Amino acid sequence: MATSTEVKEENVLRETVSVVVQALILALILRTFLFQPFNIPSGSMKPTLLVGDYVFVSKFSYGYSRYSFPFGPNLFSGRVWEGIPERGDVVVFKFPPDPSKDYIKRLIGLPGDKVQMRDGVLYLNGSAVKREAGGSFSGVTNYGREFTAPIYIETLPNGATYQTLDIERSGADNTAEFQVPEGHYFFLGDNRDDSRDSRFDVGMVPAEMLVGKAQVIFLSLQNGASAWQIWRWPLDMRWGRIFSGL
C-alpha cells in the first residue's frame, strides 16, 4: 500500500508531465499557425539582417500550405486562407530544389512581372527602380573577406523602401530579363553581390513554398554567440537591433 508521501510524489510527477506536454502542444500550435522563430546564418540580407539575428515570422500572413507544417506532409495542395504577398516583404520560403532548407529574401517580382539587373541597378517591368545613396556599410563577406560598401536605398513602385549593398562589380550586376510565371515569386537578397536568390539556383518560388513574412528581430547576437549561451548576452548582444521591425 502506497504511503501518503508516495501518493503526493506521484501526483506531483503526473502534474509536471501534464504541464510539460501541454506547453509543448501549445508551442507547436503557436509555431505552426502563428509565429515561428528563425535565425539568420548568412550575410545575404545585409544590411537589413545580420548573421546572428533572430526573427519572428508570421505564418498567417500568406495563409497555409503543406510547408506550414513540420516535415511538409503532403496533406493538400495550394494554400488555404491565402494572403497576397506584397513587393518589398521579407519572406521565409522553402528552397525549391530542396524543401528541407529555409531561405529568407526580399520579394521583388510578382506573377507577371519582368525583373532584370543592369549594371547593378534593378529594373522592374522595364523601368529602373528608384535608387539613392544612403551611406556605407562595413562587414565581412560569406567567404570571410572584409569590405566597406556603399548602401543604396531602393523604393519599389508600391512605396516599399529598404537598404541594399553593392559590394563590387560582379556577374550578379547584369542578368537576363526574368519573366515571373503565374503562381510564382521572384526574390533578391539585399546584399546583391553575395546572395543566392532567384537570379541563380533558387529560381522562381512557387506560392505554395512561402512559409511566412518576417516581422521583427527579437534577438541579435554577434561574434558567433548562440541564443542558448545566455552568459554571452551582455557582451555579444546587439541591443540596438532588438524589436526592430522589418
Description:
Strands 1, 2, 3, 4, 12, 13, 14 and 15 form an eight-stranded antiparallel beta sheet that branches. It is built from two helices and 15 strands. The longest helix has 30 residues. It starts with a helix and ends with a strand. It is globular. It has two domains: 33 residues; 212 residues, Umud Fragment, subunit A (Ribbon). The mean pLDDT is 89. With 246 residues, the protein is mainly beta.
- By oligomeric state, this entry counts as single chain
Rg, please? 22 Å
Structure summary, number of beta strands? 15
Helix content: 10-25%
Content-based structural category: mainly beta
List descriptors.
246 residues; mainly beta; Umud Fragment, subunit A; 8-stranded antiparallel beta sheet; 4-stranded antiparallel beta sheet; 15 strands
Helix and strand layout, with pairings?
Layout: H1 4-33, E1 35-39, E2 53-58, E3 90-95, E4 98-109, E5 114-118, E6 121-124, E7 127-128, E8 130-140, E9 146-155, E10 161-165, E11 178-179, E12 184-188, E13 205-206, E14 210-220, H2 233-236, E15 244-245
